[in-house]
Structure formats: structure tokens, C-alpha cells
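Hi, does anyone understand the following?
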Amino acid sequence: MVRVQAYMRKVFGTKTLSVRARPKIKDSAEVYVGEDFVGTLTVDNEDGELCYQFQMAILELDLEDV
């Protein structure tokens, strides 16, 4: 997850992004910017190819200040 976190920090341009393990679920992690939860990261190891999927929901409420 350290490499994925470094990649996501580079892509999104923020050093405050963190990927945190979930205590009971081993195939996914939570993604935060600062202390704000922004989405989940899921690990997919299909046919021996490792892939990471990031899912983020954007609520209408989140768009009010934009």
C-alpha cells in the first residue's frame, strides 16, 4: 500500500493523502485527504495480475462551495 499511496499522492498532488488498512477487511483500504475520508481502494488479483481500484463518491453537498 505504500507504493499505491505514493502514486496517489503524486497523481492528486497532495502529501496529506493517506491509504489506511481496514481492520477486518484484507482486500481493501480507506483513502483519506488529511482526516477527511474520500474513498476506498480495492485490491484485485485476477489471473495473477495485481490491480488497484479507487472508488470515490461525490455528494451534491460536496459541490456547494464549487
User: Anything to note?
Assistant: Residues 44 and 51 are 5 Å apart (CA to CA). The chain has a mean pLDDT of 93.
